[in-house]
Amino acid sequence: MASVHLPNELWCSAWEYLSIMECFAIAQVCRSWRRTACAWPRLWTQLSFDYYPKSNRIPYNRFGRFVPYGRQLETKPYETWLVITEVQLLDLFAERSAPMLLKFKIKVLRDCVGDEKDQAERLVEFSQLLARNASRLRSLVITTDSVILVQKILSGLPRCLPHLETLFIGDCDQRGDPIDLDFDTPALKNLQLYGLVPSRDLFNLTTSSLRFLDGGVYDSQDALRLLACAGTVQELQVEVHSNFHPTDAETQMIRQRLPPRLDTLQLRCHFNTDMTHGYALSSFYDAAIRKCSLFLDDTDAGDLEGFWPTLRSPPKFGVSRGANRRKNIRSAAMIRRVQFSQTVGPARPMRGEHGFQARGPLSTGSQGHAPYSLRERHPRAQILLRIRTSP
């Protein structure tokens, strides 16, 4: 195969049908194929940018690794380093990928080498690089536990990002000044904001094509500001905190701002009071929603009946525990279909053999059914309630 020489036009058409991982495999065949793969612009459009903690023994003043999406190239410390700076490498990616759109992922932790101010200064050049390529930016994923670092990364971006489709900002704490999201993003489809508070941070996003929105709310004003940019959203995920207690008038205002084409809703209720989940459901749930998931943190399964009457339009479903054990919330006439799952621990949910989902070592009843109350065995249990209404 290595001796086969194909015309460049045929090669270019063949690359369009390959994934990036397949291109990496082909590049290992021979020097000629490697040269062709490296000249393909799409190979340079996706870049992961990780800044590792000092505990990983990454040499000082060096970023940990630069890898394309899906390609985890582990680099051993103090071995085989490219003799170019981080920004020069990013410039190389931007140049070789032209004129295609770019996807950037950056992960910076506060306990990395150097103090927080030193990291912020070094991120200024990265922000300037993003600014130079803002018109080609398709996806921007920022994972950091520092508001200061997020501000530095976003500081150089212009207001207009014409091709940005995905914006993710995650794991931020609330120390430091508010984050200003003042962008014109006509192509934005996916917006995920973990750790940002709408009433604290400045949300002024202009978009007309948003399909997926994920954010957190602490009070009714947070909910109203979050929904202000959700007019075209089809899938909404909201993290609701314990002091979310809207009045009847505020609940009505939130319901009026729900996206008209909303199809899927996920509510994550953390550190719940007895009625937080009831307020969340009564504010965000609508009978037109086809799929709804409710995550309850530190809540007794028996408390479900307590907050269900708070719904203005109770959904038509029942609750099942385990494989053959069922309990109706209101009446059998209202049951359609529901999946009730109990989850424990921080791991990712996995399908259990008895029909419920479990995170970690979930204790079951004598016949393999989930226990009626998880609070006695797991004080920090989480409960997942998935609602599926009739189409």
Would you mind describing this structure in some detail?
This protein has three domains: about 1-40, Monooxygenase (Up-down Bundle); about 40-210, no CATH class; about 255-390, no CATH class. By secondary structure, it is α/β, with parallel strands linked by helices. The strands form four sheets. Strands 2-1-3-4-5-7-9-10-11-12-18-15 form a twelve-stranded mixed sheet. A two-stranded parallel sheet has the order 6-8. The protein has helices at about 10-15, 20-25, 30-40, 85-95, 115-130, 145-155, 220-225, 250-255, 275-285, 305; strands spanning about 45-50, 65, 100-110, 135-145, 165-170, 180, 190-195, 200-205, 210-215, 235-240, 265-270, 290-295, 320, 325, 335-345, 350, 355-360, 380-390.
Structural class, by secondary structure, is alpha/beta
End-to-end Cα distance: 53 Å
Got a strand count?
18
**Strand arrangement, major sheet:** 2-1-3-4-5-7-9-10-11-12-18-15
List low-pLDDT spans: 53-84, 298-383, 387-391
Radius of gyration: 25 Å
Secondary-structure element sequence? Answer: HHHEEHEHEHEEEEEHEHEHEHEEEEEE
The number of distinct helices, counting runs of at least 4 residues, comes to: 10
pLDDT averaged residue by residue: 65
Q: Largest sheet, if any?
A: 12 strands, mixed
